[in-house]
Amino acid sequence: MAAGVLRTGFVLLALGWGAACCAQAAPAAPAAETSAGSPVDDAAQEKLLQQAMEQIKAGMNADAINGPLAQVIHTYETAYAHSKQQIYCAETLPEALVYSGIASKNHKSSVVLSKPDWALAYFLRGYAYGSMNDLPHAEESLKQALALSPFNSQFLSELGDVYENEKNWPSALDTFQSAYGVADFAAPEKQTALRCVALRGQGYVLVELHKLDEATQKYNACLAISPGDQRSINELGYVKGLQAKAQK
After folding, report:
1. What per-residue confidence (pLDDT) applies to 221?
2. Which of 97, 120, 150 is the last residue of a domain?
3. Which residue ranges contain the repeat TPR (predicted)?
């Protein structure tokens, strides 16, 4: 199994990210406000994010980090630098509502941004750093994304991948388990893919921990919801080979 295989396709998933979910969240979640009067030009930030994603797909990771992503992050950090409210970014209405509930439970005033672009910028920067094998900066940036979107399965799995590459197996396993647990908050059309990413991540770690039977269960769980998933099939073949060697 090659390290980093879990990351394939994450930028493509991110391309579909960014629906304006939260403008509808405020009536159902009065504890949180929404950024209807945003101080940021959302359309301009989305163009920069699109540029960054294209650069990352082309392998121009440093250009993406130092160019459009730096611009987007600076814009949002400057706009909300003095806010006394807890800021969240959400992709879907259920995700926005759970953030509202957390803030209410903690007796905090919160804002759920109507565009999740700020969190996505941190995520893409973390992804780009990971592609450059700069794991400390990747981890830092992904944790910034998760501070804004703590229930984002994609962000969690990418952080799990960083821990995996650091050979921090306990943190990787815990993070992939969390990613699986919050996939329900993603857009419906992404949930199966995100669950499989999280399951394959757990399987990878369990193989490294020599827990081959448990790893097999994770890959089979992915196949149960996504029949024909080639990566799980390939990994199961790898695990069977290890089991055969162990029996000799």
Report:
1. 98
2. 150
3. 119-152
